[in-house]
């Protein structure tokens, strides 16, 4: 098994490069096994490995767990860094909030270190547990070998690699036992949805996979199918949607949205919605399928979903930021500083050129723009204008389109390209990421 996982790392990752390879290390059995395998590969490949541990501050033993993670990482030859989830914790929705915080903190640490890939230790068992939860109404996404970081905008340009999706949890723990290594068992795992899924799933004989406890029906067989360890990676969840790699999506001039095809598959449509809206929470599956069905039917309509507006007229479908959402929850005003990049509204990366400017929405300010700026704005669909970024002086004065006084990059097109790359399954090497993530978006020729 160690050889199989190491072979996947060998096939996917670059050697002898300056930027580190990051690894999410919780101290659980899965991540400790991955640390063992990845550290050996990194030593042989001339690659620096950075283990990142998040202390959620949810258990009184969490400080000790972090110390154990640090000791294990240092002993393996990896660098180690800790991030802490500070502040008040929600009384409801704690698992989702903790997951969001974990991904955000890991992404921030990885990006600060210059990493482009973070290893996660999900296994075949995690796939089965996710299937079990989705069968009961969960909107949890299905795991893929490669996927963009779900934290947005903290994880922009960052990919997650899961090299152990074809391996079983118990087999990984057996490797640790044989090596005399231990791991942390978080009692909180048994409380929430995934813990209930884990309890409901029992191993097949001799670690063949997982079975729904007390069940032998079609659902149990469906769960069993993709999780046999040792048979290679589990099927990619969007295998039926490989067309999305070539689906047309044309960004609009100022990054205010995309033109997409009516035949856009659901997975690609979900990505377009998120990239146009700047959000990170995917739409519910039933609503997404209903929208995709309306598009495929040829119906002309206007709809909203996941913070995005969809306008279908004839063969033209435009997806952009929903103006009503901007009014209900306006984007934050952000002060700019020379040479410092900030993400505004999840859609634009703005780098200040001079002090004293604040990035905000054009909402309520369109009529006081200069004549030249209004001419540019008038070329944008009317429904998208209020969501464009403008700059205002902290001491007052007329607003200007952000492109006039700052460097502006639209994040949507690059984010969508990365999502497509990950789910197409056609390229799977770290070296392929360079052009996809870091290709520059040229400034619009309107300025």
Main attributes of the structure:
single chain, 447 residues, alpha+beta, Rossmann fold, 3 domains, 6-stranded mixed beta sheet, 5-stranded antiparallel beta sheet, 15 helices, 36% helix, tRNA(Ile)-lysidine synthase, ATP binding, ATP-binding, cytoplasm, EC 6.3.4.19
Please describe what this structure looks like.
With 447 residues, this protein is α+β, with helices and mostly antiparallel strands. It folds into three domains: 226 residues, 3-Layer(aba) Sandwich (Rossmann fold), CATH 3.40.50; 83 residues; 84 residues, no CATH class. The protein is 36% helix and 19% strand. The protein has 15 helices and 20 strands. The strands form five sheets. Strands 3-2-1-4-6-5 form a six-stranded mixed β-sheet, sandwiched between helices. Strands 9-10-13-12-11 form a five-stranded antiparallel β-sheet. A hairpin with a 6-residue loop joins strand 7 and strand 8. Helix 9 packs antiparallel against helix 14.
Entry summary:
The chain has 447 residues and is of the alpha+beta class.
SSE arrangement:
Blueprint: H1 2-12, E1 21-24, H2 29-45, E2 49-55, H3 62-76, E3 79-84, H4 94-113, E4 117-119, H5 124-134, E5 146-148, E6 159-161, H6 169-178, H7 193-200, E7 201-203, E8 210-212, H8 218-224, E9 249-251, E10 257-260, H9 266-277, H10 285-297, E11 301-305, E12 308-313, E13 316-321, H11 323-328, E14 334-335, E15 341-344, E16 348-352, E17 357-361, H12 371-377, E18 389-393, E19 400-401, H13 402-405, E20 406-410, H14 412-424, H15 433-438
Parallel strand pairs: 1-2, 1-4, 2-3, 4-6
Antiparallel strand pairs: 5-6, 7-8, 9-10, 10-13, 11-12, 12-13, 14-17, 15-16, 16-20, 17-18, 18-19
């Amino acid at each position: 098994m160690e050889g199989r996982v190491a072979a996947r790392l060998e096939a996917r990752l670059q050697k002898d490069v300056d930027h580190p390879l990051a690894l999410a290390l919780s101290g659980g059995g899965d991540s400790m096994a991955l640390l063992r395998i990845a550290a050996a590969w990194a030593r042989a490949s001339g690659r620096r490995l950075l283990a990142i541990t998040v202390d959620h501050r949810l258990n009184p033993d969490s400080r000790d767990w972090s110390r154990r993670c640090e000791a294990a990482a240092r002993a393996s030859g990896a660098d180690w860094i800790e991030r802490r989830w500070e502040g008040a914790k929600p009384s409801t929705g704690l698992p989702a909030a903790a997951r969001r915080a974990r991904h955000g903190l890991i992404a921030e640490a990885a990006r600060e270190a210059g990493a482009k890939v973070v290893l996660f230790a999900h296994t075949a068992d995690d796939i089965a547990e996710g299937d079990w939860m989705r069968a009961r109404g969960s909107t949890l996404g299905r795991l893929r070998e490669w996927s963009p970081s779900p934290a947005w905008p903290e994880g922009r340009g960052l990919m997650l690699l899961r090299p152990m999706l074809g391996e079983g949890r118990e087999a990984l723990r057996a490797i640790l036992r044989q090596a005399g290594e231990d791991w942390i068992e978080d009692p909180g795992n048994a409380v929430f949805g995934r813990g209930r899924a884990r309890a409901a799933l029992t191993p097949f004989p001799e670690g063949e996979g997982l079975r729904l406890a007390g069940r032998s029906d079609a659902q149990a067989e469906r769960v069993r199918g993709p999780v046999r360890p040792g048979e290679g990676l589990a099927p990619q969840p969007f295998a039926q949607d490989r067309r999305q790699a070539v689906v047309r999506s044309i960004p609009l001039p100022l990054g205010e949205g995309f033109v997409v095809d009516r035949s856009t598959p659901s997975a690609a449509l979900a990505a377009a919605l998120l990239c146009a809206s700047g959000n990170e929470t995917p739409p519910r599956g039933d609503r997404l399928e209903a929208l995709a069905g309306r598009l495929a039917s040829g119906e002309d309509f206007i709809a909203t979903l996941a913070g995005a507006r969809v306008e279908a007229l004839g063969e033209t479908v435009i997806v952009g930021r929903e103006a009503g959402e901007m009014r209900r929850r306006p984007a934050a005003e952000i002060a700019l500083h020379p040479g410092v990049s900030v993400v505004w509204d999840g859609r634009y990366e703005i780098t200040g050129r001079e002090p004293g400017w604040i990035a905000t929405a054009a909402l309520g300010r369109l009529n006081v723009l200069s004549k030249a700026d209004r001419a540019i704005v008038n070329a944008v669909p009317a429904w998208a204008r209020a969501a464009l970024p403008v700059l205002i002086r902290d001491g007052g004065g007329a607003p200007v389109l952000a492109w006039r006084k700052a460097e502006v990059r639209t994040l949507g097109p690059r984010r969508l390209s990365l999502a497509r790359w990950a789910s197409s399954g056609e390229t799977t090497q770290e070296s392929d990421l360079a052009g996809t993530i870091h290709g520059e978006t040229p400034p619009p020729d309107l300025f």
